[in-house]
Amino acid sequence: MPDQNPKGRGSAGDRGTISLLRRRPRQAVAIAVVLGVAAAAFAYTGGWLTPHRLSPARFVDSLEVNAGGVHHGFRRAHAKGICVAGAFRATPQAKAWSSAAVFSGASIPVVGRLAEANPDPFLTDGRQVVRSMALRLVPPGGGEWRTGMNDTPGMAVSTPDAFYELGLAARPDPATGRPDPARMKSFLVAHPEAVAFNARVAAKPLAASFANDTYNGINGFYFVGRDGARRLVRWRMEAEAPFSTLSKAEVSRLGPNYLFDDLLQRIAAGPLKWRLVATFAQPGDPNRSAELWPADRRQVAMGELALTYAESEAPGNCRDLNFDPMVLPPGIEPSADPIPWARSAVYAMSYQRRMSEPKPPSAIAGQTAGAVR
Amino acid sequence: VTVAPDRFNRTARALHWLMAALVLTMLLLGAGMMSTVSPTYHRLFGWHRTIGILVLALVAVRLVNRLIRGAPPMPPDLPRWQRIAAGGSHVMLYILMFAIPLVGWATLSAADYPVLIFGDIQLPPIAGHNEQLFALLRPLHRWLAYLLFTVWLVHLGAALFHRLIRRDRVLESMI
């Protein structure tokens, strides 16, 4: 091979470069150290050197273990659900409290998902007492808002770390298939807020339907008004359909998908409506999701949601959306409540995993009811 | 007859060092945001989108400048494999600086997730809402970023090699 190299280096094996390196060993070592430090800094930042750091991957791993394995293609929590669509219209006073485009007063298109807070996509309805509503509101000129709400009064804990620990305490022991009672007991001793939550959930009557249930935003956010004032707020979707409940005996006579059958039937008959109500904190109210605010706090009706259409999860609909509660428009801002920040990270990881898996049909397959208006 | 320049032009040098800082920041933001469920995740993700789009815009300017103004010649005594490695790694750096932000933007588009930069400026999607596309692009974004970090390490090592071991004027051509 012709070598155009005037000094004769660069022949096969490149003895020139090797002898250069031999002649300057300290410099060679210095370069290796610089590169090693750079690689280590990258690895540290990525968390590969600190496996105790609570990463989205570790969090989702934990959900998967507690679920008894991965249900491929389904959400890692709230796995059994149905897609809905409709519209939201703000009340006239709403825009005084938040400048978000969703509160303009125009009819805002909404897609969403109603689900049960359980990792089993083929759960028998009635066994899981927590239900959820996730919404995506898309004003035509931008300012999209996504929110996910549960029908529970608050949360069991107030921090992502405590939530993770709760998962560990509730983890089924491989030997018995049941959580270790001692471990759960010591968790509850350390987290009295979780004991209080369990009592509230036990005392709460179970709604007979998705349609007459009220869904709480639970986490604290700021509404920012046109005057620039930031007010700490929690919101809820309050059903307009009259509340009713079912006894355990009645539930046991119903089919395994009765909640969804009921929803499809109701939405075929006409729009299902909820009032969005915002509760404003007073100074000193705890911005911790396990703690409720006093009942006398200012409540403002922000608007009305009307769901007119429901369909089974399918490619391209709510199945393939991430209802990330940190997708907020100008006019709604995150607060110091650490839970939504963590939900954002964890939902993204759950989404990333399930999107790359085969997606079997949901328990509610091939259904549609109502109409998009 | 013009004499070949021994340095990159001023625009190329300014863009090089600015983008060196931005690309390294991007790599650390990307790796760091995926390591935590703390509020850091959301904050870093916001910066990651903004700087990513900035890198995409700057690399386009830089490529035009490079194509028009060229680069100083490599040292004449540089072994052939090092010429190939230098040329190849520079081409790879350009490709990756275009590809990674575009893949990231398309990943969010395929997820039907709003692409917000500088807080609340929304960019249009560059791909349709498609789970299969997302499933392809999301890991691609990550692996291309690991590749970029590796090529970046080689690039840094080579720059130091020229300065400290070969003691030629290659690093100086970018200063």
Q: If you had to describe this structure to a student in words, what would you say it looks like?
A:
The complex is a heterodimer of chains A (373) and B (175). Chain A contains 10 helices and 11 strands. Chain A is an alpha+beta fold. In chain A, strands 1, 2, 3, 4, 5, 6, 7, 8, 9, 10 and 11 form an 11-stranded antiparallel beta sheet that branches. In chain A, helix 3 crosses helix 10. Mean pLDDT of chain A is 93; it is low at 1-12. Chain B is built from 4 helices and 2 strands; from the N terminus they run αααββα. In chain B, a hairpin with a 3-residue loop joins strand 1 and strand 2. The two termini of chain B are 25 Å apart.
Set out the fold topology.
The complex is a heterodimer of chains A (373) and B (175).
Chain A: H1 15-23, H2 25-45, H3 56-66, E1 80-90, H4 94-97, E2 107-116, E3 131-137, E4 145-150, H5 160-169, H6 181-190, H7 192-203, E5 215-216, E6 221-224, E7 230-239, H8 248-253, H9 258-269, E8 272-280, E9 299-311, E10 332-334, H10 338-355, E11 368-370
Helix pairs in contact in A: 3-10
Chain B: H1 10-33, H2 40-69, H3 80-110, E1 115-117, E2 121-123, H4 131-166
Antiparallel strand pairs in B: 1-2
Helix pairs in contact in B: 1-2, 2-3, 3-4
Q: What is the residue-averaged pLDDT of chain B?
A: 94
Number of helices of chain B: 4
Q: Uncertain segments of chain A of ≥5 residues (pLDDT<50)?
A: 1-12
- The unreliable regions of chain B are none
Strand percent estimate of chain B: under 5%
Shape of chain A: globular
Biggest beta sheet summary of chain B = 2 strands, antiparallel
Morphology of chain B? elongated
**Total DSSP E strands of chain A:** 11
β-strand percent of chain A reads 15-25%
Give me the strand/helix succession of chain A.
HHHEHEEEHHHEEEHHEEEHE
Helix content of chain B: 55-70%
Secondary structure category of chain A: alpha+beta
Distance between the termini of chain B: 25 Å
Q: Helix count of chain A, per DSSP?
A: 10
Structural class, from secondary structure content of chain B?
Answer: mainly alpha
Q: Largest interface: which pair?
A: A-B, 58 and 43 residues
| Beta-strand segment tally of chain B | 2
N/C terminus separation of chain A: 75 Å
Oligomer: heterodimer
